[in-house]
What we know:
Blueprint: H1 20-33, H2 41-53, E1 61-64, H3 67-78, E2 85-89, H4 94-102, E3 106-110, E4 132-138, H5 147-157, E5 161-164, H6 169-175, E6 182-187, E7 200-204, H7 207-216, H8 238-249, H9 251-269, E8 275-277, E9 290-293, H10 298-307, H11 335-340, E10 344-347, H12 355-374
Parallel strand pairs: 2-3, 2-4, 4-5, 5-6
Antiparallel strand pairs: 1-7, 6-7, 8-9, 9-10
Bound molecules: pyridoxal-5'-phosphate (PLP).
Pyridoxal-5'-phosphate binds near residues 67, 96, 167 and 187.
Amino acid sequence: MSAAVGYSQIPVMRPQLPTTADLVPFLQEIDQNRYYSNHGPLYRRFARELDQSANFPVSSSILVGNATQGLTSVLRVRGLAGRPYCALPAWSFVASAAAVVEAGMQPYFVDVEEDTWAYSPLALRDMPLDKLAAVMVVAPFGQSVPLQEWDEWSSLTGIPVIIDAAAGFDFVVQELEAYPNLTTVVSLHATKTLSSGEGGWLIDFNKDVLRNALADGNFGYLDGAIGQTFGHNYKMSEYHAAVGLASLQSWDMTRRRFAERFNKMVEALEPLPLSVFPNPSKPFFISSTFHITTEMPADFLASELLKRGVLTRQWWGEGIHRLKAYAHFPRGDLSMTNKISPYILGLPFSVDMTDGEIERVRDAIAEAFYVHAMT
Ligand SMILES: *Cc1c(COP(=O)(O)O)cnc(C)c1O
């Protein structure tokens, strides 16, 4: 098979944020307000509308520059002093572990389950709990995690639980309730489903936690006074809030388009011997990524697809624990992560992928299976 001469390449992701025309009314408001950052009117409106979209009580969240900053802030605010570790799944994006290190803790990598790609409190049964400053639970590619169970576990152990639902806007809006022991962070990055370009949505139903997280991301300003606590600059600007507000306006349509294209992909791939994540036969939440697992190593499949103009990505590589910068951190048994991750590949996916592109992806995978069987 020769290289895909004459074909355009199909990108692995093609985000679509609000257009210039969608943004104009919001930008004009900024012109009027002459307020450009520092928790201005658009910031406050965006936070309020997000809370409303999820049916949260008023003022249940703050907005930050990105999800990594939100995770870092809340780990600083809620993490138990004098304890070294934050448990987190090895199967996640590197940002989860980066936030742990930035908050002054050591990542302790834990394994995930084969079907959910996440872990439950059971996975921590052999951990030295008295060494845990916090636990981070990752909602993999926006799919659900047992929130109620984690809330109860946190209440029982006194250990804070932070949900990294970076790709999970849909999940959070539909499933998160006012759990008293959980903090949840959603990414509003351009590659996620609801976006402000860059941004993070930090949700907590405890007013003190929110107040302290806000101070952590605003130079330590607490109740109008500076210097009572350390602080950083994690603020979301009015311009990012404008993009977020415009995105929120068309959320229902974005959601429908993702779901419709997801179903189309599933239908096209149906004849092939592969499994799709999220599992389409179970309730799932929309995601901006589309994953398959096959018997072919992901790097083999990726190179075969590349020859056919289909770009792919191993979004989480083979786990954070394998990355050089994280190789020295402690971990439990990671046999499931090590077993499944080399076979997982992210396919091209976007709200406006054409039927023709989906067919090309399917045909390229079918050819890769053929090549694999021949070698
Ligand atoms: C995207 C992502 C992040 C980082 O979010 P940012 O807003 O880009 O900082 C963190 N964790 C997971 C699981 C992600 O998918």
